[in-house]
Backbone:
């Protein structure tokens, strides 16, 4: 699953709770349905591993039977949520079998349409890539759509899985006659990240390249350059190191970074759903060390979220947390006066931004601390503290005081970490880390009593 889901419904007896609802790709309901291979009745006879908020929502739309839609790749394409039968007779085994068959057929149609859309996008990218190069012996990058491995232009099929190779970005296989792209590691809104080899010093690195659709976009190029300038000022074990930056002849840009093996915190949460208290304290002590280093350098990240925190293991098996992606970062200092962001513009990720950032107001260090508090809450509860998919829904959720369990070990921490007003939050990353360590003290004290 890599896209959001929209919910449509047709009934005469259901509440408006389901109208215009959009479920995020990482929604607990979707994660739960991904694991189901047949229709499941609700309320569940056993614990369905759903957070309370999702269970309450299913009750509010009178859900009685949930039917997953799985395609040939076993990925979830969607699901049915049905109420009770009008005859009030429970769903029979035959009913469920027919609904499962229908769901599978719909998933196949969705899969075919997605495949056709993918082919159209590939054709568009190929035309765009080639249009940015003059005729000549330029070694355009090709990559395998299955495994992500990179190849030279003349290669037609992947040596590992025999997949037909495709053009991806309008760049040469070896950038600046130095950085040879080896494998796609990930792709985001602004660009793609590749494992590469610095051929000058024989060092493995990560190379981030501006998305092909962004080539020639002056604002995107300036933001990309800002990321290089920002991260280049920082040298800390909990922040990924930037080595180099350059502009391409095809009006694109690239960023060369330290290559770290591991996974994002977002990927960890998809696999584990939530973390235990001791792990949260240990990991976020490191994250806050990195945040503090950035703040001391006069830099505010403005887009802290699980996707921008990387979890890796050192040679001695200890875990290291690194902060990524300073593309939206802002300097408190006045040395950079050419702001990329227009005042009043909302930049960041919904669900993690504090109220002042959502309103387009000035942000400071405490805005990053609020986002960190949201991530910590999500790690402990497998859901974010403020519900909503749209700007209006998030703001409405934030306007209500968050309900915290007074018996929870982190209650006092969240009262400050998720405070609506900046003046009521932790004043610094080091103070917030102290609040986490105090929670550790409470945990240890509880265990010994």
Residues:
């Amino acid at each position: 699953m890599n896209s959001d889901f929209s919910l449509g419904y047709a009934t005469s007896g259901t509440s408006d709770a389901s109208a215009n609802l959009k479920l995020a790709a990482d929604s607990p309901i979707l994660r739960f349905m991904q694991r189901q291979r047949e229709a499941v009745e609700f309320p569940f006879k056993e614990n369905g591993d759903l957070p309370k908020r999702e269970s309450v929502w299913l009750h509010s739309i009178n859900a009685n039977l949930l039917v997953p839609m799985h395609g040939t790749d076993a990925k979830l394409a969607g699901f049915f949520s049905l109420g009770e039968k009008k005859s009030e007779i429970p769903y029979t085994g035959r009913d469920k079998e027919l609904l499962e068959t229908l769901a599978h057929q719909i998933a196949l149609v969705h899969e075919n349409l997605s495949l056709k859309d993918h082919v159209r996008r590939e054709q568009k990218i190929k035309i765009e890539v080639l249009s940015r190069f003059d005729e000549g012996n330029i070694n355009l990058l090709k990559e395998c759509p299955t495994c992500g491995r990179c190849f030279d232009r003349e290669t037609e099929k992947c040596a590992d899985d025999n997949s037909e190779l495709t053009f991806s970005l309008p760049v040469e296989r070896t950038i600046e006659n130095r950085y040879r792209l080896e494998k796609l590691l990930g792709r985001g809104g602004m660009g793609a990240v590749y494992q590469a080899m610095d051929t000058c010093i024989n060092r493995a690195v990560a190379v981030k390249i501006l998305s092909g659709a962004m080539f020639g976009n002056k604002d995107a190029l300036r933001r990309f350059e800002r990321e290089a300038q920002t991260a280049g000022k920082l040298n800390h074990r909990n922040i990924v190191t930037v080595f180099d930056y350059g502009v391409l002849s095809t009006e694109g840009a690239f960023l060369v970074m330290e290559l770290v093996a591991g996974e994002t915190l977002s990927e960890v949460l998809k696999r584990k759903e939530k973390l235990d208290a001791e792990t949260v304290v240990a990991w976020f002590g490191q994250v806050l060390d990195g945040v503090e280093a950035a703040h001391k350098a006069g830099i505010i990240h403005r887009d802290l979220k699980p996707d921008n925190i990387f979890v890796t293991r050192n040679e001695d098996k200890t875990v290291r947390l690194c902060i990524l992606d300073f593309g939206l970062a802002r300097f408190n200092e006045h040395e950079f006066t050419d702001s990329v962001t227009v005042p009043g513009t909302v930049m960041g990720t919904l669900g993690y931004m504090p109220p002042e950032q959502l309103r387009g107001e000035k942000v400071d260090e405490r805005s990053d601390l609020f986002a960190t508090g949201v991530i910590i809450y999500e790690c402990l509860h497998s859901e974010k503290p403020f519900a909503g998919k749209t700007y209006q829904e998030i703001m409405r959720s934030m306007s209500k005081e968050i309900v915290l369990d007074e018996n929870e070990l982190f209650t006092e921490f969240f009262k400050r970490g998720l405070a609506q007003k900046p003046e009521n939050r932790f004043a610094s990353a080091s103070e917030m880390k102290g609040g986490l360590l105090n929670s550790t003290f409470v945990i240890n004290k509880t265990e010994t009593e």
Summary: The CA atoms of residues 301 and 329 lie 4 Å apart. The chain has eleven helices and 19 strands. The chain has a mean pLDDT of 81. The first strand starts at residue 5 and ends at 6.
